[in-house]
Design a protein that fits this description.
The chain is of the alpha/beta class and 318 residues long. The chain is built from eleven helices and 13 strands. Helix 6 (150-169) links the parallel strand 5 and strand 6 (173-178).
Amino acid sequence: MKIIVTGAAGFIGFHTSLSLLKRQITVYGIDDLNSYYDVSLKKSRLAILKKFKDFFFIKKKIEDKSLASLFKRKKVDVIINLAAQAGVRHSLKNPYVYIDSNVLGQVNMLELAKQLKVQKFIYASSSSVYGGNKEMPFSVKQRVDNPISLYAATKKSTELIAECYSHLFKIQCVGLRFFTVYGPWGRPDMATFIFTKNILENKAIQIFNYGKMKRDFTYIDDIVQGVLGVLKIKKKFCHKIYNLGNSHPEVLLEFIEVIEKNLNLKAKKTLLPIQPGDVSETFADISESKKDFNFSPKTKVSTGIPKFINWYKDYYKL
């Protein structure tokens, strides 16, 4: 099997690529190594992937139309489009990069899927598409027409674009709405990373909505299990969307307590109002994911946080 993974030097893309390579699957990894966060972290992930003979790296943006020419004589079975401009708050400051990477990038990768006649096109969506929905847990059967950030709007757009391409060109598309992913090699702009770093450096951590937040924190290994599970779906359909979450929301202050306990340090907390574009709670209904590809997240926060902290201390030589 030969698979294109975009965002291969990113957090989820790296772990997905690594799992595929360990299964002796050829991976064409695409990433532009942009500077949204520390590029050296991306290069460190990439260095691990490059140790595998079946990994081939292409440094390009996914919206670059010249990508198609690189695959003219190649057989590719599946495209997993995990590249995206992430971050709700950053989308308020730099909207254009979200349109380029998330919307134009999705179109470009679907055009490539059409050219290569792939078996499946799997792509990353986000729990942010649920916006201000009050009905819990978030179900894929709910309408998601009210995004409260541009990031969420671009992710909803990727779902609509996939719906269109799947019907027009008979590409089987699967959208995965990820819920607050954390774990080793995680993104420095995510809560787990920020809290750990600041507590270790004796700096205050900002806690929004005065701590009245719940997040469905999902460990990276469970997410990868879900992505690889989609590869095994035998059902015939055009386009389906699934939630990949832990289906167990954590109170943010209690989540921080787990980090404090594992660091054996107390956090300095600054309580602040909720930020524009943020939601107060996320909670995944994973019944469809369980039914169709046996998605069953197993990692509790009490297990996942120590693994992240051990990686963090090892990587930064603390």
